[in-house]
Write a structure and sequence with these properties.
InterPro entries: ABC3_permease_C (IPR003838), MacB_PCD (IPR025857), Macrolide_Exporter_MacB (IPR050250). Keywords: Cell membrane, Membrane, Transmembrane, Transmembrane helix. The protein has 791 residues and is of the alpha+beta class. It has 3 domains: 181 residues, no CATH class; 212 residues, no CATH class; 194 residues, no CATH class. The protein is 49% helix and 17% strand. It contains 24 helices and 26 strands. The strands form 5 sheets. Strands 17, 18, 19, 20, 21, 22, 23 and 24 form an 8-stranded mixed sheet that branches. Strands 4-5-10-7-9-8 form a 6-stranded mixed barrel. Strands 1, 2, 3, 11 and 12 form a 5-stranded antiparallel sheet that branches.
Amino acid sequence: MLQNYFKIAWRNIVRNKAFSAINILGLALGMGCSLLIFLWIQDEVSVDNYHANGPQLYNVIHRQIYDNKTETGRFTPGVLPDELKRQFPEIVYAAGYTGWDADMTFTVGDKINKEMGHWAGADWFKMFSIPLLAGTPATALNSPTGMAISHKVADFYFGNPVAALGKSIRIDNKNDYQVTAVFENLPDNSSDKYDFLINWKDCLNRNPWMKEWGNNGPHTRIMVRPNANIANLDAKLKPFLRKYDKNVGRTFDAQLFLQAYPDGYLYSNFKNGQQDGGRIGYVRLFGIVAIFLLLIACINFMNLATARSVKRAREVGVRKVIGAGRALLAGQFIGEALLFTGLALVIALLLVFSLLPAFNSLTGKHISLQATQASFWLVLVGMALLTGLIAGSYPALFLSSLEPVRVLKGALTFGSGARMLRQGLVVFQFVLSMLLIVGTIVVYRQVHYVQTKNLGYERENLIYIPVEGELTAPSTYKMFKDELLRQPGISSVSSMQEAPTNIGSTTGGVSWPGKDPNVNVEITHTAVGYDLMKTLRIKLTGRDFSPEFSTDTTNYIINEASAKRIGYKDPVGQPITMWGKPGKIIGVMEDFHFQSLHIPISPLIFRLGVESDRQNFIIRTQPGQTTQALVSVETLWKQLNPKFPFAYRFADDEYQKLYKSESVVGSLANYFAFLAIFISCLGLFGLSAFTAEQRTKEIGVRKVLGASVGGIVGLLSKDFLKLVVIAIVISSPLAWYAMNQWLEGFAYKIDISWWIFALAGLLAVGIALVTVSFQSVKAALMNPVKSLRSD
């Protein structure tokens, strides 16, 4: 019997080639896209979930409440890890970790290269499942001059991990470190990215400010005992800092709480001191998109199968007369749906296999088909079964319910219920498609807005070059800067401790006459060199730092947000004190965006940097002469700083990195919206073809009676277009709400204008009209003699 059913199903597929092709292609596209999204979601969810001690690992989160604001993040005092381990028996291990990347120059013999790494506590390899190829977790980071390097670094400098152990590496041509361990290269699903780790004590020695409880910056990670009560530990951690920082509880409040380490990647955002999403939002978004695409493909199958049921009605009637039960018939049609789905799955796999390299390039992932894992095939089989059951359920129930007497008399007509269901499914399809179209337009406009917004400074033709090696010496620094200004194509040069795209250091150590001593005001700060306003082209009231004024070492430049918070009506010349150093405000710069547009512009203060503060040269080139300028800079670099590889960054590129996730989402939304419309139109095309076929004689009669081609096209098209218009009306408020929620994550954003919905609606109507009109025109141009010949 099963063999017979299979033959019947296959014959139906072959006999109705156009119908079958539309169904299989729609299902294949829906399943293929859903599978790609599933693989992406699987990769996102797997990040940081490979550690054996994962359930016992936690990030320590720091919540500061001051000046009517709450700031929350992973920034903690550098001395916190060891103290937590001493004070709380629930904590087995604790390790500090620098949240900022350290790009250092490694020298081994004649090999010189830049490597990126961090400093970490001695317990690091006891906490995390990072295989050691040489060395032990107990000794990997237990010496201030010891360091652990990756397999890749060991191979490059020493040939293999075993040969690297115990060898010396000179870093930044200053200090020698001994290789105490070699770890396996970090997997792609690790949120931590580094090729070396240096002992935490070395970090504290390099940065004395990290030894003070009032200063925050690095991360703290802990591992608790398996039976630890996290709620009790959280409660004890909350007031912990009050014992160590005398200002906590007086001018501001600071609290600690725990976040499960595996949650840190997906739930990185905080609002009002509480965890508030992050990348999990995109995981949920694309999960919904995958369901949308699969549903649209299933609805196509339902509609076409039900519409064409008149072709199978007599078959059903005959089978019922000779004894076939309803369950048996339903099973047959479900089986046919599963056969369609199986064929579609094969095509979907071929699509995924061919598109995966481009998908990885777009998303920055390294996803592969896990063909050797049983779980992968279980997911595929599950997807195929679910899709087949959803797609075949209604047609099977509808066809198996037909009454044989009416069918065999030729009295089969579609009731209003079946017709309304079919229309409802078409509306549902286009509601989902409209949501994707509107979402695509809004995401594109927001991404374009942040990419083109005036930041308050000119980031075009701006280059960052690290101040390192010989250039840290005052005389060489000045020589390099002076020589740069003589090079063709360079208009101005300055320096900054942090790049202008991401200034993150804050301080509560700023005061002024009239400031409430019981209120802590957190102000972002950084050190800068001479001529920065000219180099960044920031509008300034007052003057810039100048070597002509020796007192500028204790003077300051503030932004408009700082002036507003301080309350000075005319700030230039007014007194201000930072870290106990009294000075004056010599300039007020126009507010500019020094962080992501997700964050409002906050108070900012610039101080004149000393040698140790000079981290980046900021170089402005003449328009159209950047390449020439870079050649000149590299030549000069090799002359004055030969032991360090020349490296540079463009301000534009650094800015774009802030919105990488949004750019990826925008690109993916474009593709998925197109596919949703395409799949929907496949179904619309099939339905319009079937409708035209069913009304062939009616069209012939109308043409004989004088109906025009345009009139017939309008007659056949208006019912479908009516459904699309209903979908537009339903989807518009839903799309507005969804995109408004997404835009809430930006402090600076576009308005969702009415024309976005009008444009999306016109696109949907236009595409649907073209799809339906193709079949309508074909039917309208048919010779009525052929359609009426049998009557």
